[in-house]
Design brief:
heterodimer; A: 500 residues; mainly alpha; two-stranded antiparallel ribbon; B: mainly alpha; disordered C terminus
Chain lengths: 500, 112
């Protein structure tokens, strides 16, 4: 039974390379100090991106997951790395956004003197650590291994929030850490129960063994609860807005675009890869309900914010809600569940690129004008046209207007909700779009109206361009061909089928 | 009552107590201690899993022990990071609170 899944496939070493590159970068950065850490990270980005693309190419070419058994020991004895369609897509997206963030931040954290070099060293090491942790999350196949990766991600993300050392950023980081610690310990307890019940933590093996028993439900609930705290799903979203709004722009882009997607990815792994054979209808409805509440509450709170970065952060809370609609819309092995799955993944990608672009633009803006109070941005679009074009196009994707990745995601979600007869989910989808239009209007109205705004410094052209390129990717996702949707199906087990 | 059952109940009680503290105590340091209490409960559960030999069919399973050691290292690192943040927050602002409004309210500058 295990013979067909437990051998290293050609190209399996690429998975190891994908993890080792950033880890090697971290070690080198420690050895050489802050002055070179930035160059090492920037030098690493083309190689990391190339490896991610090579993995995606390999998965697409073979049509099957790429598999690597560490030390030649297949599970259950050893630990495996496994990259399927969604892992490959997420790896490429991670490489793209981290590359953008690194180049965006290269001047701010350039370490010209000794005092600066400490925060520079920290920033670059944490950025590489986020890359390493996300890679392990996307290719990991063992629940305990994934726990360690999740912790690495938290430990890298929390200090990024408070890298400039102001008291409010420290408080935001501490809140984030406490929520994350609750999440991790809850996850760990779930892992203990799974191991106690079935003696393995390998995802495909576990999927073959699970039965709908109380211990499985308890373990799944604990793991899900923990992951929800880390993903900041309503009502566990309280830590996210202050943390994401107070971080430096490049860090906010990575935190909002990628880091919350790491724990969301593991929630997908749990329900669609470990427990696909279980009757999960009510759980899916509950997760969808929380997601709907998040869409509404996040959108309404975004409308009330006075600061641009806080508004964008609350918009993240709202957009995370959309992700959880994938659970009712992609459950089971129906014709519509494929549409729901495509919609969910498209939402992950579209939000990652659009939100990263918006946070980077907000950073350009804050640097140029010296603040980000929305009411005082009168006439700002006249002096920063490219930045406001980027923000507006990002908003286009958040609202779900064509042509954009956000439109495809929400359109497919609507299709799935109608096709599955669960039309109730179309209400939050549409309301969320209206709320997004509302808060985008709040940003753009003062910016586009007549007025004089005093500039503190000229915007850096390359930073504006990086944000613009990211938002163009978010729009281009709206033109994704059918081959792309077939690609993200690779390796997805369907209910009632053998998950291997 | 077998020793395993007793240990399991103690583990559950520790998790419950810790969760209570984590949710209800406003001070970050108490929250951190409560997190460590939950951690101890979870590690105890791992210990029982090891003693019962899990589902692998051994009389004694060493794998959960390895996981507990990793878990303890992670929990220790997390605690160290949290304590460092609390100390830094205190030295920067002279107080330790998680209330986000405390930093934006008028008059919060005086406290520095």
């Amino acid at each position: 039974m295990t013979a067909d899944i437990a051998t290293t496939t050609p190209g399996g070493f690429l998975l190891v390379l994908a993890v080792l590159l950033p880890v090697g970068g971290i070690i080198l950065s420690f050895a050489t100090g802050g002055r070179h850490a930035g160059q090492i990270t920037l030098g690493l980005t083309p190689f990391g991106s190339a490896v991610a693309c090579a993995i995606a190419f390999r998965v697409g070419q073979s049509g099957k997951p790429v598999f690597y058994a560490i030390g030649g020991l297949p599970p259950p004895l050893g630990i495996a790395l496994r990259a399927d369609g969604i892992s490959a897509v997420m790896l490429v997206a991670t490489a793209a956004i981290l590359t953008a963030a690194a180049f965006y931040a290269r001047e701010k954290f350039a370490a010209r003197d000794v005092r600066e070099s400490r925060s520079a060293l920290t920033f670059w090491i944490l950025l590489q650590a986020i890359w390493a942790a996300l890679t392990i999350i996307f290719v990991g196949s063992d629940l305990f291994n994934l726990y360690v990766a999740l912790e690495l991600l938290t430990f890298a993300a929390v200090p990024l929030v408070c890298i400039d050392g102001r008291p409010e950023t420290l408080a935001a980081a501490l809140r984030y850490l406490l929520f994350a610690l609750f999440g991790s310990i809850s996850y760990l307890l779930g892992v203990a129960l799974f191991y106690g019940a079935y003696g393995t933590l390998d995802i495909p093996l576990l999927a073959q063994r699970v039965q709908p028993t109380p211990v499985v439900w308890t373990a799944a609930a604990l793991i899900t609860g923990g992951l929800l705290a880390k993903t900041a799903l309503f009502p566990l979203h309280l830590w996210l807005p202050p943390a994401h709004a107070n971080a430096p722009a490049a860090a906010s882009a990575v935190l909002s675009g990628l880091v919350v997607k790491g724990s969301f990815f593991l929630t997908l792994r749990l329900w669609f890869y470990v427990l696909p054979a279980l009757p999960t209808g009510q759980v899916a409805a509950a997760l969808g309900g929380l997601g709907s509440a998040a869409v509404i509450v996040g959108g309404v709170l975004a409308l009330r914010q006075a600061r641009l970065k806080l508004l964008i952060a609350y918009s993240t809370v709202s957009q995370i809600g959309y992700l959880f609609l994938i659970f009712p819309l992609a459950a089971g092995a129906h014709a519509w569940s494929t549409i729901g799955w495509s919609a969910g993944l498209m939402q992950v990608l579209a939000h990652a690129f659009a939100k990263a672009a918006m946070f980077l633009s907000a950073g350009v803006l804050a640097e140029a004008v010296g603040h980000d109070q929305i009411a005082k941005l009168v006439g700002a679009a006249r002096v920063l046209p490219l930045t406001f074009l980027t923000i507006a196009l990002g908003g286009l994707s958040l609202m779900g207007l064509p042509p954009s990745g956000g439109f495809s995601a929400k359109w497919l979600m609507l299709q799935a909700s109608v096709a599955s007869g669960q039309w109730i989910w179309s209400l939050p989808i549409l309301t969320g779009g209206l709320l997004a239009a509302g808060y985008m209007y709040r940003i753009l109205t003062p910016a586009l109206s007549d007025g004089e705004i005093s500039m503190e410094s000229a915007p850096r052209r390359y930073q504006e361009t990086i944000a613009f390129v990211l938002v163009m990717i978010a729009l281009a996702l709206g033109f994704a061909p059918q081959a792309f949707f077939d690609f993200i199906e690779i390796g997805r087990p369907l209910a009632g089928e053998d998950p291997s | 009552m077998t020793p395993s059952t007793l240990a399991g109940l103690v583990g559950a009680a520790l998790v419950g107590l810790g969760l209570y503290g984590l949710v209800l105590h406003p001070h970050p340091l108490r929250k951190l201690l409560a997190f460590n209490l939950i951690g101890s409960g979870v590690f105890l559960v791992f210990g029982i899993v090891a003693r019962r030999g899990a589902a692998a069919g051994f009389s004694f399973d060493p794998v959960p022990q390895a996981m507990v050691i990793t878990g303890i290292v992670v929990a220790f690192a997390a605690s160290a990071l949290a304590v460092a943040l609390i100390l830094r927050l205190y030295s920067e602002s002279g107080r330790v609170t998680l209330d986000p409004d405390a930093w934006t309210r008028p008059g919060s500058e005086d406290a520095k």
